[in-house]
User: What shape does this take?
Amino acid sequence: MYSMIHQYLTTACLGFLILSFAAASLAEAPATLDYDSTIKQGTAQLQTGSGDLALASGEAAIRAAPGRWEGHALLGRSLLSLKRYEPAADALSKAIELAPQSEQPTLRDLRRQCLLAEAGSVSTVASAPVATAVPGQSSPAESRMSIETARRIVSANDAEWLDASTGLTWARPWYYPPQAARQWNFTDAQSFCSTLTLAGYSDWRLPSAEELQHVFLPSASGWHEARPRFVEGYGLNKALSQGTWAPASFTVNGIKFQGNRLFFWTNTPGDRMGEHVGFYFGEPHSIDDGVKAGESQWGHMLNPFQGSALCVRAPTP
Assistant: This one.
């Protein structure tokens, strides 16, 4: 009798699990269809200029599947169309984080538009046509439109940053060619910038000390706890903290140091012949042009450094 009861309960439990799994599978398919339908609906609403309705569709999509990128992208595009630039940039940043590599350039272009408009450097961004996306699709016309719009504003991709306060454009070093050497002396750094082709431009150069001082800020804490600190919009602070930009470590006198102990060269002459000014943790120093890496007292116990460069260009008229 006990055996029969046990067998009955086992069969009933298995049956319940099978039915539960089947019900979950059936529920999941409509949810996926509803999500895609919501994205398509929001896309159509954007195309007809109904930003508020598209915004609601984007929020609904995110509630249904917060781990998918399309809802965040739709939300960001909707906010952009409504001139709500800061939250639009945040939503697009989340979309970039979740999106496949092939979709990220278009999303970055849109985020760039938001940031520039928020900074007040461009007044016509919101009136430009807004690119739209359907899950798994990115039409050539949409991508082309987005890139052309971004190029009119600053550039074609995220490899450079416009400092709206000076009008200068700075290269983002994690986009440097992978074969780029490290530990540059002055000639190496000057040659690298003058021959660099990035974001479709080849008129890069070393900055002056005054220009570099504007974006490379003195570190707020003591040297041993510090990391290089840059003006926020440049993106280098975040890139360093997230490992997007990870300069190679180096060794001086048998001691290994973090790669972020960088001395950035400028084209400003130093205190003596054969020296140029560079910046170490945001502070200017005059150093021999031939030095690539080493250590200096500079008022501290030990300051290991390796030479590098942040390249800059003036905007094309």
Summary: The chain has nine helices and twelve strands. Residues 170-313 form one domain. Confidence is low (pLDDT under 50) at residues 12-30, 121-156.
